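User: structure tokens for this one?
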Amino acid sequence: MNAPATRKPNELAQFRGELDTMRSQLGLVLPPHITIERLARLAINAVQQNPDLLRCNRKSLYAAIMRSAQLGLEPDGVLGQAYLIPFKGVVQFIPGYKGLITLARNTGEVSSIRVEAVFHGDHFRVVNHQDPAFEHEPDIDGERTAAKVRAFYALARFRDGSTHFEWMSKREVDAIRERSPGKNSEPWRVHYVEMGKKTVIRRLCKFLPMDVQRAAARQEAFEERGEVVTIPEWSDEAADMNAGTLDPPAIESQPPASPMDVFERELEAGEMEEA
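Assistant:
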């Protein structure tokens, strides 16, 4: 009778120990604004809130935490930067749209990103010959609910003073929703406006630095196509293929190993055994 009650604490203690063995690898990739201690605490909180993470392939959990460290996004599920999600027995690291914005700013090439919904009653006009290429004046007395949405837009301002603007009609966003395996999930039903903002941000990301493009491609593969993104797909060329910018490459000489490559090889070599 006591075995089920003691199993979870034992699993959690084991997971804490495994995280401790990862400290050197995490230290190689963590940005200055996140400490190893903070990331470990966030990871532990994530598995406490969702025990299914510990029931997934353990190597995928380690790799998802490593990816979080590499991108400098906190997987707390609260700030909306990133999430650790169990999916078909594999842990997926999924950046949220706020995480994509953070990534863009962290590159040093983007000074700001603005994302908005347009509602019935707002003045919204696309003017291609001006910069930025739109006019938006909200109707402050109008109803700002999902039922009144007309469009979504996102604007990126770069350090050199240039901008890039993307907009999507509600019809375009709804078409993407219809193709998604999660079209009837709670996020779309309850948080439609936020999901619409996320959709237009992903379109904008195609014109942002490469790290942001890769993160957006990962998010899109999971949320819109229901695909499990495996670790090897995060190589430079495979990420570009996800974004639709490269054909499958011929196998040639291997690039120098990155910290993530070394970590994955250690996993495969069994230096960190799966529980």
